[in-house]
Amino acid sequence: MATAPRHYVVRTSWVVGEGPNFVRTMVRLADEGAAPAVVDDQVGRLTFADELARASRHLVQTCAPYGTYHVSNGGEPMSWADVAREVFALRGRDPADVRPVSTEEYAAGRSVAPRPANSVLSLHKLGATGFVPEDTREALRAYVARLPASRP
Where are the domains of the chain? Predict the structure, then answer.
């Protein structure tokens, strides 16, 4: 980036915010009594929008070295099925009601965009600036707790 040497590029994945998203869909399905099939061979970490904003603010306010940073919540990576099971448990449902399927099974007969099997971003460079990302599961618990019950 020789033409713009002073820059921050923030890369992220699996973003969860106020609009429609995977977590809200799983909350609705849990509340409605559904038993969804969810992909279990794609792993990553959720990135809550407030964490993305907090990390971006941190980079600017601490005058972190310019460059590219990966941002997501922290903790152990999860599959989409793991996230769904966690949501179901948080909504008082049996996590076993989430049926794990492979990407290939899920996509059979559908037109779906290709997704990487591993979306885990290294948070090492961001951590070197002193930023400590909130654990994914803790952020997920807080997010789900704020969502009202869905009506079937």
Answer: 8-107+117-146
pTM, rounded to two decimals: 0.93
Q: Using the structure block, give the residue that is written with the tokens 């869909």.
A: 25
- Strand 78-79 relative to strand 43-44: parallel, antiparallel, unpaired? antiparallel
C-beta neighbour count of 11 within 10 angstroms: 11
| DSSP code, position 13 | -
Count other C-beta atoms under 10 Å from residue 21's C-beta. 17
Mean pLDDT throughout 52-81? 98
The neighbouring-strand residues paired with 10 are: 69
Check: CB of residue 42 under 8 Å from CB of residue 80.
yes
Tell me the residue ranges of DSSP E strands in the chain.
8-11, 15-16, 37-39, 43-44, 47-48, 67-70, 78-79, 99-101
Q: Rounded CA gap, 20 and 42, in Å?
A: 20
Over residues 100-115, the mean pLDDT reads 90
CATH topology for the 8-107+117-146 domain: Rossmann fold (3.40.50)
**Per-residue DSSP letter, 96:** G
Alpha carbon distances (Å) from 147 to 58, 65, 85: 27, 37, 17
